[in-house]
Amino acid sequence: MSISAFENFYTEWLEEMKHRFKRLRAALQQTSFVEEEGIFNLVQSCHSHYHMYMSEKIRLCKEDLSFVIAGMWRSPFEASFLWIGGWRPTTAIVLAYSLMGTQIEGELQKLLQGIELPSMAALSAKQLSMIDALQQKLRESEDSLSNRLAILQMLFADQQMAKAAAANPPPSESNDFSDFREAMEPKLASLRDIFAEAEQLRGETIQEMLRILRPIQAGQYALAAYEMTMAVQKLGDKREGRAQLQALVHVSRSNIRELASQGNVDLLTKALQSGLDPSETDYDGRTPLDSGTELCKAAAIGNNAYLSRLAKYGVDPNVSDYGKPTPLHAAAAGGNTEAAQVLVKEGADVLAKDRE
């Protein structure tokens, strides 16, 4: 499955999940007698639909593991709370106890009167014992997976990786990452296994909790988990929207030359679309495409191909930047002998001064 196919699947899946939980909520809110069998069927419907989502994640991780582990279809706010590509299984236990506590507060009078309640407030001693046993099992499993992940992360700096980083030419100056890919393959395979086991643990946790709870309790529990998930998702979307708005405000307050000098094409495009003048000059009368600035920048960062093109199309190799340095000074300061050779060949003055 491709990333685009998964994103389309997720959009449709989420809409269907909303409809299923809407029906579950309506059934739980019935003021008359609530039929346990009907609630059970609705909970199973939601559970089977969620299982479909988990299966698609497993399929996608074979194609793009990092996309799944990072939860890149989520907002950054949501993704920051992930544990190995999803929710931490013991969260399910905490939710059960939290629901029990909040419902006891609301139904205390009925409980004191001995009225039998089907809600999370009335978890039996046997149910609590089973939940406690599940919690102990989950802690051990989580610790094991977390330790394996920690070891894998440390192995990112093992001898094979260090040897690949010491290749000649070094990775920073080469597009050949074959040694790195070879070193990473077993680590990615291990990470894929860890994710698959974490996802399986999440699935088993849901299944076990639904087995422990009575139908109405399971309905209340599933609905609470869904509402918490949706709340985090919506909060993340709002935070992301604010961040994008702040970025646009920053663009509108920035001058076009500053954005051009940063080399951020996306922000520069947005700035031009918002109406900033591409010919705007600064206090020294320079535009975003000032030739002296471009030549000096190319010489300083070692973009020799760009430097050659500028010189080829007639840009004066002796033109200076703000502080009066010429491109040759910039190349010399950066130790870029190749750029210096290009400039001298194009007629740069080796005796030019960068100060008065």
List keywords for this structure.
mainly alpha; 3 domains; 356 residues; 69% helix
List the helices and strands and how they pair.
Layout (H helix, E strand, L loop, with lengths): L2 H26 L7 H26 L3 H5 L6 H4 L10 H23 L12 H30 L4 H7 L12 H35 L2 H39 L2 H7 L2 H9 L17 H11 L2 H9 L14 H7 L3 H9 L11
Helix pairs in contact: 1-2, 1-9, 2-8, 2-9, 6-8, 7-8, 9-11, 12-13, 12-14, 13-15, 14-15
Pfam family, one: DOG1
Keywords: ANK repeat
Protein name: DOG1 domain-containing protein
Q: What does this entry show, briefly?
A:
This protein is mostly helical and about 350 residues long. It has 15 helices and no strands.
Written account of the structure:
- The protein contains 15 helices and no strands.
- It has helices at residues 3-28, 36-61, 65-69, 76-79, 90-112, 125-154, 159-165, 178-212, 215-253, 256-262, 265-273, 291-301, 304-312, 327-333, 337-345.
- The protein has 3 domains: 3-152 and 202-249, no CATH class; 256-288, no CATH class; 290-356, Ankyrin repeat-containing domain (Serine Threonine Protein Phosphatase 5, Tetratricopeptide repeat, Alpha Horseshoe).
- The protein starts with a helix and ends in an 11-residue tail after the last helix.
- 22% of the residues are buried.
- ANK repeats lie at residues 323-355.
- InterPro entries: Ankyrin_rpt, Ankyrin_rpt-contain_sf, Seed_Dev/Stress_Resp_Reg, TGA_domain.
